[in-house]
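Why do we bother with holo predictions? Because pocket geometry can differ from the apo form. Keep that in mind while you read this record for beta-D-glucopyranose.
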Amino acid sequence: MKLTFPHGFFWGAATAAHQVEGNNHNDWSEWELVNAERLARESEQTFSWNPHWQRFHAEATNPHNYISGSACEHYTRYETDFDLAASLGHTAHRFSLEWSRIEPQEGEFDQAAIEHYRTVIQALRARGLEPFVTLWHWTNPTWVETKYGNWENPIVGEKFLRFAERMITEYQDLITFWAIFNEPNTFVGRGYIRGDRPPARRSIWRARKAIKNFHHTHQKVYNMIHMHQPKATVVLSHWFAFMRPYKNQYLVRLIIPLLNYFRNGQFFHNLEDYCDAIGVQFYRVDYIRFGGWGAWGAISPVPLGEWQNDLGWDLEPESIQSVLENLKKYHKPIYITESGLADATDTNRELFIKKTLQSVHRAIANGIDVRGYFHWSLLDNFEWSEGYWPRFGLIHVDYTTQARTIRPSAQAYAEICRTNQLTIDTANGSE
Ligand code: BGC
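The structure, written out:
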């Protein structure tokens, strides 16, 4: 059976500056230097419950794993990387601008960095790839942290506005699709509640302030984009936390709506009128149970479902259908701006993609206006506080030689991109 996607549906992959570019100097790179040894030391405790631990423990216990360093050298290799994306039938690409490169000192913009991203955008267009630009994907220039703290301080929002305005005026003729902040909920959950990633605060009060700051700044940037470009599409990027009560426990069922508000609802609050499309980022299901520490954005301490990725995340790609259908009330177009899995052996990626897309197609058939899919990620890359061992790429990266190797799943995805169709093969279990 062949499932055809709507005409003009965008097919592509996503990346983020700090995870692929290499040699960035920002608040994250500073944090890595201070924390790499500790992360390596604690990895046994953090991950030994993971059924895949033996396969990656040599990497995970090595402090180098936690330092982004030269990453994929995508800053200089973007043209050949985009050649690969185009050769795989992609028609769009999502990437982010690195604030710390563009404004390395407060108020001093680096024209060479601005020109660099212009050539990146042009390189995408030259290959027929529609650029989806994210203005901020979790990293700040170091002066933000040293002078102003972090996103809990409203001044940081003001500083970001100036940066955003410059970006919009520089690239307005080249960009139609903008995302402002990547997943503020993940950033706040990890950086302010669990406190295991920058800015490592652990304070509910500061988390609230950061959320407010993201809201206000988002609204202002949205208006700014539309003032310059009335026809632009601003996509609201959000990690959709999808929770189930473990073993359907009654009491847990009662608290899920509350968790839903903390992890999803409060991030949408007041933004309905400040986005033109919703960017769905969906990876996994979180089983919630009493006694576990999984309530806020965390993975379950042990995998509880039937299918896991290398990080031990419980996979349930079919559930993207209800995530999409729950968004119907907003009456906005939807782009899947991230979906993917850590799968170093590429055993599950093709099936995961096909199951996801089959469910996306069902949602479309039920009237949901989905207009594109961006697989996370184009390349293996620096997976934040987990470092390099989790491999999310359609393309394998050898971090010693920087050689790129297209994985078989990328070829299967390419077939879908080229034909705008998903062929359901009942034998491989995707139906
Ligand atoms: C982020 C990516 C990250 C991916 C996998 C998303 O939350 O936007 O930067 O690599 O998930 O963890």
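The longest strand covers residues 130-136.
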